[in-house]
Amino acid sequence: MSKRSFASDNNAGAHPEMIEAVKAANKGHVIAYGGDPITDRAIKLFKKHFGRDVAVYFVFGGTGANVLGLKAITQSHNAIICVDGGHVDYDECGAPEKFTGCKVISIPSSNGKLRVEQIKPFLHLLGNEHHIQPRVIAISQATEMGTVYTKKELKTLSTFAHDNNMLLHVDGARIANAAVSLDASLKEITADAGVDVLSFGGTKNGMMYGEAVIFFDPKLAAEFKYIRKQGMHLPSKMRYISAQFEALLSNDLWKRSAARSNRMAQILATELAKIPKIKITQPVESNGVFAIIPPKYIPRLQNKYWFYVWNEEISEVRFMASFDTTKEDIQDFVALVRKTVK
Question: What is the rounded distance in angstroms from the CA atom of residue 9 to the CA atom of residue 2?
Fold first, then answer.
């Protein structure tokens, strides 16, 4: 049996209900490229959760969702303002710059969040033909540090963006975890908070593959069907992504899976915090736990459990819980940590 993983919620398998949904969709012939009844039902569910006027497009993965969503709302003389170390800045292999032509401006943050005060200094660029024009504030919810923007924080950012002719883009790879953490509906922390474009994550919450790009003002999506095709993210057999989204957004599966991973992260953090040589570095608000572990112990722990070193300079590591993480997984891992870190 392979090693159990706390490295990433991407490492988990697919939720059994996703497997069943794909099997159920695997019957007969339907119109390709989204012209099928399963896709129609899935889009109706998105409208139920996010608002009846949203425009929804399915893509293969998170990088495509982020980059193509940003491409739709920018021009090459624009700037995208994001947090230092966020996906748009760090983990897309330069794809945002390559495909949008925009300059990505990253701002340092100790907790993964952006604040209006940090963005204000860039307003002097607006209207000056010699300078790039700030157009998008791009954030992650939950953040790369496992923290969660409150509804008030989101509204503050969106209001500031709109007051200055900018838009708010959200990388929602873990938006379900954020909603559960806030005890909020998906709509409350997106449409109601003034979000303009959302990458809605499925893969980290139990899907095999597939993400969605949601435009809360359909006018912003006017050219997106061409952008998606040109960006190589138009699935021909879309029904298999749609079937998973239909399952995810039915019977609260999105909420059940996210609640499980959030709860497991809380238990893990509570137990690790009891070990004197380990320091939890971030509030545990979603399904990620960040901790400092003396470096000499890390390879020995990684021998049996996968996890990533997040910041080598301070020996900070990241543990991610998944929809299928169990209490037994945590008990066994914590027992190993107690035995190792002395």
Answer: 15
Nearest to 285 by CA among 155, 187, 153: 153
pLDDT of residue 4: 79
Q: Which two tokens stand for residue 134?
A: 């700030």
Which H or E run contains 300? helix 298-302
| Distance separating alpha carbons of residues 50 and 214, to the nearest angstrom | 9
* Dihedral sign computed on CA atoms, order 137, 138, 140, 141: positive
Look at the domain 16-248 and name its fold.
Aspartate Aminotransferase; domain 2 (3.40.640)
Class of domain 4-11+253-340: alpha beta
Over the stretch 18-62, which tens digit does the pLDDT of each residue have? 999 999 999 999 999 999 999 999 999 999 999 999 999 999 999
Q: Can you tell me the mean pLDDT for 102-117?
A: 96
Transcribe 47-89 into DSSP letters. HHHH-TT-EEEEESSHHHHHHHHHHHT--TTEEEEEETTSIII
pLDDT tens for 213-240 read: 999 999 999 999 999 999 999 999 999 9
| Rounded to 5°, angle at Cα 334 from 330 and 339 | 155
CB 198 within 8 A of CB 227: no
Q: What is the mean pLDDT of the chain?
A: 96
The confidence score (pLDDT) of residue 86 equals 82
> CA of 45: how far to CAs of 174, 216, 242, 283, in Å?
18, 15, 10, 32
Coil vs helix vs strand at 212? strand
Regarding pTM above 0.85, the answer is yes
Domain ranges of the chain: 4-11+253-340, 16-248
Q: Name which of 51, 31, 88 is nearest 188 in CA terms.
A: 51
User: Chain centroid to CA 271: how far?
Assistant: 26
The structure tokens 């100790």 sit at 110
**CB contact set of 58 (below 8 Å; sequence gap of 6+):** 34, 39, 42, 210, 211, 212, 213, 235, 238, 241, 242, 245
Taking the alpha carbons at both ends of the chain, their separation in whole angstroms is: 28
Tell how strand 197-201 and strand 167-172 pair up. Answer: parallel
